[in-house]
From TrEMBL:
It comes from Microbacterium terrae. GO terms for molecular function: formamidase activity. Its EC number is 3.5.1.49. Transmembrane segments: none annotated. Pfam families: FmdA_AmdA. Keywords: Hydrolase. This is Formamidase. PANTHER family: FORMAMIDASE C869.04-RELATED. It comes from the Bacteria.
Length: 388
């Protein structure tokens, strides 16, 4: 990691009061059936689980888990690998720096040239999940653990490679969180060192949710794939569902890369990165039901209260777009029996294809298919009564 980081900072201006409790490990509500802390023994840094990894927790299908997740921002080597020192330099009280971030930075190491930056909590073995099934992950609740986060452009990465960041520097922008009538907002100045006058609403989600891959090689944490991983789809807020094809028995699910907010594209390299406490429910969709509901999924599928969201991925954004169109066509055929040429026409007329991110080696595109548009389509009885 070359160069010294340029850190832009704002004061917290009283944001850390009783309205913003600090969710240290074991402090605060943990509503899941199980609670998994982020410790050096229950996280991986820079790599994702594979079939050879032992589970940190075993749960029954249908149960929920409350996870503590830790952002990589503040613990990275170019930030001193010292979250206490780094965050207190931005005006954060020492008591408001997460103890598990401090412990992970002190106990674990990674190869910055070979490994990714992300910290993931898990894996979790889900009883009854078999290869070929779908793992259904419902996002029940996302709680901010701290009232601050970081947005970074580093290592010559981002949408403007070779142009930004300027020179040899890595840029980390500290961002305080404040309360407004409309909800919680991130606050930024318009000039370095200026007053915080730019405000954007928070919409927390987990950038990384995945299942273990087959074999004994842990994947790099940055590129997403059929296993999920770092998909960075901002629609995965509270109430959303993610379906992933199970690749090893028990699924070995994991979560991480918590975000407070992100724009589609994530152009600077990171979103507003900050630690979350996430409560998720894990269900297993048997292969026969999965095929009837969605067809043969080769990658992640998101479902919100409004949309079905197939995905496409590839290092080439144009190819990722085409892969997403193919996935959407396949979904419409399998779920609604729609002829290909009619589905193609529908997608062109009625469906938005959004760029999830362009900064994670493998680019992502996702489509938003409104389920209400198909309310008049008769579904086969076998699928209408499923729990998918």
């Amino acid at each position: 990691m070359s160069g010294n980081p340029v850190v832009t900072s704002m004061g917290l201006d009283g944001a850390m009061d009783a309205a913003f409790p600090i969710l240290q490990p074991g402090v605060g509500d943990t509503p899941g059936d199980h609670y998994l802390r982020a410790t050096p023994e229950t996280v991986m840094w820079g790599r994702l689980p594979c079939a050879a990894d032992a589970p940190a927790l075993t749960v029954a299908a249908g149960q929920s888990v409350t996870f503590d997740t830790v952002s990589h921002e503040g613990i990275l080597e170019d930030q001193g690998k010292d979250p206490l020192g780094w965050f207190t330099a931005q005006g954060v009280p020492a008591a408001s720096v997460l103890d598990d971030a401090v412990a992970i930075a002190a106990a674990l190491s990674r190869d910055p040239l070979a490994d990714g930056p992300h910290v993931v909590t898990g894996p979790v073995f889900i009883e009854g999940a078999a290869v070929g099934d779908l793992l259904k992950i419902t996002v029940d609740r996302l709680d901010l653990r701290v009232p601050y986060g970081v947005i970074s452009n580093r290592h010559g990465k981002g949408a403007l490679v070779g142009e930004l960041p300027r020179g040899e520097h890595n840029v980390s922008v500290f961002c305080a969180v404040e309360g407004r009538d409309a909800g919680l907002v991130g606050v930024l100045p318009v000039v370095e060192g200026g007053e915080g006058v730019v405000e954007f609403l928070l919409a927390p989600f987990l950038g990384t949710m995945g299942v273990a891959v087959a074999g004994d090689q842990r994947p790099h944490s940055v590129p997403p794939g059929s296993h999920g991983g770092n998909i960075d789809i901002k629609l995965l807020v509270e109430g959303a569902v993610l379906y992933l094809p199970v690749q090893v028995d028990g699924a070995l699910a994991y979560v991480g890369d918590p975000h407070f907010a992100q724009g589609d594209g994530e152009v600077a390299l990171t979103a507003l990165e900050a630690s979350l406490r996430a409560t998720l429910t894990f269900d297993v969709v048997p292969r026969a039901v999965a095929l009837a509901e969605f067809g043969e999924l080769v990658g992640p599928l998101v479902r919100t209260d409004e949309y079905l969201v197939p995905t496409g991925m590839d290092p080439d954004l144009n190819v990722a777009m085409r892969n997403c169109v193919r996935a959407a066509l396949s979904l419409l055929k399998a779920r609604y029996g729609m002829d290909e040429h009619l589905a193609y026409a529908y997608l062109s007329a009625a469906t938005d294809f959004d760029i999830s991110q362009v900064v994670d080696i493998v680019c992502g595109v996702h489509a938003r298919i409104r389920e209400a548009d198909f309310a008049g389509v008769a579904r086969p009885p076998a699928s209408s009564g499923s729990d998918a």
